[in-house]
Amino acid sequence: MPALVLADRKIVRVDGADAEHFLQNLITANVDAIEAGQARPTALLTPQGKILFDFLISKAVETGYDCDIRADIADDFIRRLTLYKLRAAVSVEKLDDMPVIAGWGGAAPVGALADKRFPDDAGVWRLHGSGAVLDADRSAWEKTRITHGVAESGTDFALSDIFPHDAMMDKNDGVDFRKGCYVGQEVVSRMQHRGTARKRVAIVAAETDLPQAGPDETDISIVAGEKTVGSLGSTTGNMGLAMVRTDRVADALADNIPLTAGGMAVTLTLPKWSGLSFASAAPDT
Predict the structure, then answer these.
(1) Domain topology for 198-281
(2) pLDDT value of residue 1
(3) What are the boundaries of each domain within the chain?
(4) What would the pLDDT profile of 217-270 be if each residue is shown by its tens digit?
(5) pLDDT digits (tens, 9 = 90+) for 26-64
(6) Residue 216 pLDDT more than 50?
(7) CA distance 248 to 246
(8) Is 283 or 194 the better-scoring residue by pLDDT?
(9) pLDDT tens digits, one per residue of 102-148
(10) Is 24 left (phi over 0), alpha (psi -120 to 50) or beta?
């Protein structure tokens, strides 16, 4: 049962009598459907439908919710929520003394939350606080995340740059298409109904270790022939994640055009849990 503290994550607690209604009108997930014992993916979007903040949300105290978010954007997230709060009976607080623990495999400790970005049989969980044996390192966690095709902002995509569909949030219940309005909902719903999502997260594999972005964070392109089809994100050893144009990858595969990253031959697959292939994911328009 490997586990480790994710030092780059923080918990922001949204509490109060109006917390559920407040969040339901802001974020992509259906807050009413969040069950005890699970951490669900979700996002707060720009009015144009792009991901402004990505995070996991779970039930906390009786009227509250915990938002598991990147530490470096937690304060900006709090400021954004405060702008929307107006007169709502809601408090927003960063819990600096509550560590975020990730684990996988074996029996989860008491109080753990199933990380719903992953398929159930992966056994990946989060724990807010203590109560787990910490016996894994960061590279083991990154390998688990990459192997299952779970992308995160900062390493796999830039905030305010992609739509929820691009990050597979339409496939992991990070977006609810039946609930009422939320920020950016009109754009996201139109993409869903028209099938116009052009980008997806793909799992990258190579024979040897993949290149990593340098200190200047220069993008490493995924190329088919002379055409760029995407860019490399997180890597660990010979595996990584990439944000790719599904139509361009589908064309390359159909024409048997080799795919490369930094001059290295690679293969691309879409996460099994998504139910997608490159042919099926290519946009209709």
Answers:
(1) Elongation Factor Tu (Ef-tu); domain 3 (2.40.30)
(2) 78
(3) 3-147, 198-281
(4) 568 999 999 899 999 999 999 999 999 999 999 999 999 999 999 889 999 999
(5) 999 999 999 999 999 999 999 999 999 999 999 997 789
(6) no
(7) 5
(8) 194
(9) 999 888 999 999 999 999 999 999 999 988 889 999 999 999 999 99
(10) alpha
Tokens of 217: 């964070």
Task: Give the model's confidence band at 23: pLDDT under 50 very low, under 70 low, under 90 confident, else very high.
Answer: very high
Q: Does domain 3-147 have CATH number 3.30.70.1400?
A: yes
Give the 3-state DSSP-derived string for the chain, with helices as H, strands as E and coil as C: CCEEECCCEEEEEEECCCHHHHHHCCECCCHHHCCCCEEEEEEEECCCCCEEEEEEEEECCCCCEEEEEEHHHHHHHHHHHHHHHCCCCCEEEEECCCCEEEEECCCCCCCCEEECCCCHHHCEEEEECCCCCCCCCHHHHHHHHHHCCCCCECCCECCCCCCCCCCCCCCCCCCCCCCCCCCCHHHHHHHHHHCCCCEEEEEEEECCCCCCCCCCCCCCEEEECCEEEEEEEEEECCEEEEEEEHHHHHHHHHCCCCEEECCEEEEEECCHHHCCCHHHHCCCC
- Phi/psi at 29 (5° precision): -80, 160
Q: How many CB atoms lie within 10 A of CB 231?
A: 16
Tell whether pTM > 0.70.
yes
**Judging by DSSP bridges, how do beta strands 113-115 and 38-45 pair with one another?**
parallel
